[in-house]
Design a protein that fits this description.
alpha/beta; Glutamyl-tRNA Synthetase, domain 2; 7-stranded mixed sheet; 22% strand; binds adenosine-5'-triphosphate; binds magnesium ion
Amino acid sequence: MLPFLKPAAITRLLIFKKSTMSESASEVRTPKNFLEEIIERDLADGRHESILTRFPPEPNGYLHIGHAKSITVNFGLAKKYGGATNLRFDDTNPVTESVEYVESIKRDVKWLGYEWQQELYASDYFEQLFEFALQLIRAGLAYVDDSTSEEIAAQKGTPTQPGTDSPYRSRTPEENEDLFRRMRAGEFPDGARILRAKIDMASPNMHMRDPVLYRIKHAHHHRTGDSWCIYPTYDFAHGQSDSIEKITHSICTLEFVPHRPLYEWLIEKLGIFPSKQFEFARLNMTYTIMSKRKLMQLVNEGHVAGWDDPRMPTISGLRRRGYTPEAIREFCARISVAKRDNLIDVSLLEFCAREHLNRTGLRRMVVFDPVKLVITNWPQGKTELLESENNPEDTEGGDRQVPFSGTLWIEQEDFMADAPRKFFRLSPGRSVRLKSAYIITCEDYVADENGTVTEIRCTYHPDSRSGSDTSGIKAKGTLHWVSAEHAVPVEVRNYDRLFLVEDLATAEGDFLDHVNPDSLITIPQAMAEPGLLDDLAAPDANRPHFQFMRKGYYFEDDDSTPEKPVFNQTVGLRDTWAKVNKK
Ligand code: ATP
Ligand code: MG
């Protein structure tokens, strides 16, 4: 095992100065990362005039936050150095790939804010790759092997023992070419023969022990249909695709370090454009998983409602939950690129979302667990429209009008019949401010036979209105509220972590054993101020994000309809991340 593949250690990255995100990430972070250093060197010494990177997803699932990291690295570097980035679908495995995934990937990359120079498919190079394979065969550098997979595995040796040559290794180039063409023509069943590179069965690098270049697979491909029944392996397709596109910096994750010698061998032997591979650490995050295969299992086995379930670490799940591209990009910039595997605390992602949403989210009042509050001295039937800021952090955010009347909803938990001294909310004889409205004093309350409070009775102080308060009354607490007559019922979906353990890589048993059964907490009927629904008609891209005051940040769910509005909690208000780092 290579030293950098050690079990991950939890990295709690320090947040250097609490930057505002209006400063761009690059302004805040002065030290260059190692990829920036390489690119600057390559540009300075004239190795390349400009850089071309690529993002190469396999369309076999939806993109996740780990891919966002790769996207921001590839597109971000190209942007920073005036280069460009290709979006290349690495579609060499017909069995697991589909157009649905291709479309979702394009949507996600665009949503993150990036534009690719060209949309390309490895499958477009199948003919060219076939020619490359013939070139290797004719040069005596590749051969057709009829061994079974068991035989090949047995020949491979171990990391400490050299492998043994296949009995087919000495086939002549003519014989190999004939067999390879017949493989393509469909003469042989799946698994009957493979094409291998002829390198070195004693190489200390297992990937150099005559790696497989082509397999027979009689399968329908989502783009090439039934034209092919042989498919190139990742190693054969990837580097050659990079070279065909003249990618200057082919950036991938650390597990490809041992593949690099093969990447370079193939390019050298074929004498094609010398793309270079560079590796950085995959993003791993606490309380979640990043493998598409496992994410698919969560979907297929019904642990979540779909790839875009708001609990999923997918880009589509994060978007649906209310994360913004700005927050995700900021997160990726803050973790920078590492050369060692690590585990990033998910609360850094939440911190980035909170920072952005605090500056952009519209303030609205929503009562999750309503109890009735009656203002006994409020003029019968009167409604007053109170002006309140949409966002105190945004001077251009404007105001909204909130209707106030004599019957309100407040949170059950904001009232206590028999309260301790430090309870700064409502209790008989105590006063609080109603946000953007008046100070009220609790007179008494009504409870049912179980002791559940059903009505709180208060008086209001007419001279205490927010903004023109001359009452001189001190109220320690401020409560959110909604006028009962004007309130609109909405469904609220709150979320907890999808998994109960921090590091799933080291957790015992199957990852599914650790799924949190209570990760979705639905509030079927919360009461919202009517203004909440006014903005929802906005087109998708302009859908507003909200701060439900004293509750958290919320975003309208895709299930929402005008008849039954539904909101997802993006993140809570509390900043656990900052707390961890202040210590
Ligand atoms: P998965 O294991 O989730 O299926 P993958 O690596 O097979 O991931 P690809 O579609 O092949 O997924 O990846 C496209 C690009 O995204 C590759 O360059 C890959 O290295 C990068 N990538 C995938 N996962 C991560 C991650 N967790 N962190 C950073 N980059 C990643
Ligand atoms: Mg893959």
